Structure formats: C-alpha cells, structure tokens
C-alpha cells in the first residue's frame, strides 16, 4: 500500500501554517495582527456545523439504542467519570501550584493593578450561578438551541428528540433515516472545511504572536512553563493510568489524533475538532450511542485542563499578592471550582470566566489579581484546550469499557494500523 506524500498530509500542512504564522508574528507583528480574520473565519466555519453534527449524532445514537435504560446507564457512568476526573485534576493543579510556586517573589501591590481590562469577565462571572446555568440549558425555541451555540442546550434538544423518535418505533423510521443521511452530509462538510485548517492555524497563531509578542511571556515564564509541565504530567500519569486500565496505548492514541491536536495548537480552540474526535473515537471501537452522549457533554463537564489551570492560577495569584490560603480554604476552593467550572459553559472566554467566578465566590484571593494572568491567558489556553480534547476522547473509551461495549479488537487494530502508517511515513521521509 502506497502512503500519501507527507506534504499532502493535513498534519504537515498545519505544522507549516503554524511555523509561518509564528515567523510572521515575530518579524512583522503589524502585518500578523491583520491575519486574525483567517483564524476567526475558520473557527466560525467549524462552529457553524457543530450544532447539526451533535444533533444528528446524538439522535441517531439514542434512537438506535436497545432501550432507554441503556441511555440512563451510560449517562450515569459518564457523570461519575467526569466528577472523579475533575476532582483529580483540581487536586493535581493545587499540588502543582505548591510545588512549582509560580507566583513566589512577585510581591505585587494590589493598589497598583489596573482592573479595567478584566471588567467584562468580572461582569460575566457575576451572572454565572446555578439558576442561570440550568436555565441556559433550556432553549427558548428549538432553533435557538442551535443559534446560541450552547452545546448543552443542543444536547438536551437532541436527547429529547432521539428519545421520542425511539419511543414511536417504526413510525419514526423515515425520520431516523433522514437524520442519518443528513449526518453523512454534515460530516462531509467537516472534511471539506478541514482542508482550510492550515490557513486557520496560520491566521490564529500569527495574530497571537503579533499582538502579544514572545517577549510578553518573559515576566510570567515560570507560570507558563510550570503549567505546561503540569499538563504533561497529568496526561502521562492520569490519562496513562486510564489507558492502562482500558488496555490501550496512550501514545498510540495521541498519534491517532495528532491532526486534531495540531489544529488546536494553531487555533487555540478544541471545539473546532469536536466532529473529528467523535468520528475517530467511533472508529476505535466505541459504540455510536456512547460517543454521541459522552463527548459533547464532556465539552462542558469534563474540562480537566481547565480545572488544572483554575487551581494553579488561583495559587499563582495568591502567591504573587502574598495572600495566605489555609488548608480549609483550599478544600473549599476545590468544591467551589467543581461547580463554577461547569457553570460557564457556552460563555465567551469560558476558562477566564470560570476562574473569575471562583474568586468572586471565594473572596479570600483578590479578584484584582486576575490582571496578572490576562496577558498569558491566550498562551495557556491552547494547552488546556489540548488536554480537554485528549480527555474527552479517553472519557468515551473509558465509559465504553466500563459499560462492557468497547470493541477492544477493533481498537487494537485501528491503533496498530495508525502506528504502522506512521512508521511507513517516517521511513519514507528518512529515505528522501
């Protein structure tokens, strides 16, 4: 079997786009800032198609289930898994913050901070509470669930539609076939849009480097590198343990989703690869109903990278402002972060809003300290988005294995085939 030339591979084109974007941002920052519409346009193209894909996938997945008890069982196991992983991520972020001490030695005076830059996030955070969160899941109309872009609202509408379609039996068969056919069309659209990934990555990374500059990271380099070190440890240790229990290689899985990881590296958004991830995890042997339910809901409930960021960032602010945090305050912090990390779903700048709302609820750490990390938020945001994506795919695999419906033979064949293809590509490039 002849492999596709490496320069035609999507991952290679995305790498080239990122390299060119970084170079342009560094040497010609004024021009690079003008490339922002390329990244924004690509993200909007993907966002346009996410709602219909979630709807079609969830509806056909639920309608294809044997009974509704299966839906409740899978959903319950997914929520338990999400809760456990969230707590683990928050605790590791807390431990990492104490070990790395990213804010030690800053000795920042709060009176010198200009909080005007974070006012929009503070206002958004004040609006985030249990009531607004629950009400936000319920759309005003069927169509508004899709126009709002709230994944949880789309998920709720999809579950209700899929349940009703299953309940009416054979009478709903034509609708089921229509939705299934529409799903193929929307996934084909995704593949067409994906051809623009390198352009989107180029535009997004060029703007980031041009606007903020590499030099802007120097004062906060300890926080940035410490955070990425923590992300790597979390992926290798925690996700590695889950992979071991489910009997698959973590690194083979990472190679399998390398294109998606590179797209996030360029765009800074995990939402743009949601359809790709669902498709690939299904190819790994996870049943469509499980994938359809776990991965979209994981985008709101299984944000492990974001949880790591929240606890470490709060400790950074506390250390930088010489704010003492007692053991009990830190335990309360974990409990509060568990709630606020779920309450900002669908909010622009969600991770930053989550962090701000946590500080508002837990006033021991000054909210004004958010100014200190505003400049690096875009850089660390890429890392947490990558970890969130990795975790959501693993969540679907773990829940499938827990429910006894994971096709382990198909998973092994899929990952082995991917590894062999990677080896062939490597040898081909080496020979050249």
From TrEMBL:
From the Swiss-Prot or TrEMBL record, state where the protein is found: Cell membrane
SUPFAM superfamilies in the cross-refs: Proton glutamate symport protein (SSF118215)
The membrane topology noted for this protein in its Swiss-Prot or TrEMBL record is: Multi-pass membrane protein
- Keyword check for Hydrolase: no
Using the record, list the residue span of the signal peptide; answer none if the entry has no such feature.
none
One Gene Ontology term of the biological-process aspect is: L-aspartate transmembrane transport
- Write out the transmembrane intervals: 10-29, 41-66, 78-100, 142-163, 199-221, 227-254, 298-320, 332-353, 359-376, 383-402
Q: Which superkingdom does the taxonomy of this entry point to?
A: Bacteria
Pfam families per record: SDF (PF00375)
Q: What is this protein called?
A: C4-dicarboxylate transporter DctA
Gene that encodes the chain: dctA
């Amino acid at each position: 079997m002849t492999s596709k030339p490496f320069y035609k591979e999507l991952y290679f084109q995305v790498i080239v786009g990122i390299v060119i974007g970084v170079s342009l941002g560094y040497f010609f920052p004024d021009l690079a800032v003008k490339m922002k519409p390329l990244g924004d346009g690509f993200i909007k193209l993907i966002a346009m198609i996410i709602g219909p894909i979630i709807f079609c996938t969830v509806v056909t997945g639920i309608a294809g289930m044997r009974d509704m008890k299966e839906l409740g069982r899978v959903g319950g196991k997914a929520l338990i898994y999400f809760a456990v992983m969230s707590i683990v991520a928050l605790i590791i972020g807390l431990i990492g913050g104490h070990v790395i001490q990213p804010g030690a030695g800053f000795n920042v005076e709060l009176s010198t901070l200009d909080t005007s830059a974070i006012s929009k996030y503070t206002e958004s955070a004040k609006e985030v509470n249990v009531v607004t969160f629950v009400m936000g899941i319920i759309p005003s109309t069927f169509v508004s669930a899709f126009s709002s872009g709230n994944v949880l609202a789309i998920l709720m509408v999809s579950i209700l539609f899929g349940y009703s379609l299953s309940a009416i039996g054979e009478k709903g068969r034509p609708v089921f076939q229509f939705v299934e056919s529409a799903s193929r069309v929307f996934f084909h659209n995704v593949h067409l849009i994906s051809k623009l990934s390198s352009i989107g990555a180029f535009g997004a990374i060029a703007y980031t480097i041009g606007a903020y500059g590499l030099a802007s990271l120097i004062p906060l380099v300890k926080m940035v590198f410490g955070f990425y070190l923590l992300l790597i440890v979390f992926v290798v240790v925690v996700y590695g343990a889950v992979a071991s229990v489910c009997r698959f290689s973590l690194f083979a899985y990472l190679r399998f989703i390398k294109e998606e990881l590179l797209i996030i590296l360029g765009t800074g958004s995990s939402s743009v690869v949601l359809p790709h991830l669902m498709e690939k995890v299904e190819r790994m042997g996870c049943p469509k109903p499980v994938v359809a339910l776990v991965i979209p809901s994981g985008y709101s409930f299984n944000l492990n990278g974001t949880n790591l960021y929240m606890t470490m960032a709060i400790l950074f602010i506390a250390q930088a402002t010489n704010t003492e945090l007692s053991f009990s305050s830190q335990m309360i912090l974990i409990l509060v972060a568990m709630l606020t990390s779920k309450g900002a779903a669908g909010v622009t700048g969600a991770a930053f809003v989550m962090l701000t709302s946590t500080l508002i609820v837990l006033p021991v750490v000054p909210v004004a300290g958010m100014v200190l990390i505003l400049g690096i938020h875009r850089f660390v945001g890429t890392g947490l988005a990558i970890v969130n994506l990795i975790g959501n795919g693993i969540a679907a695999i773990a829940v499938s294995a827990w429910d006894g419906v994971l096709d382990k033979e198909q998973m092994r064949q899929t990952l082995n085939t991917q590894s062999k293809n990677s080896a062939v590509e490597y040898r081909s490039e080496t020979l050249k």
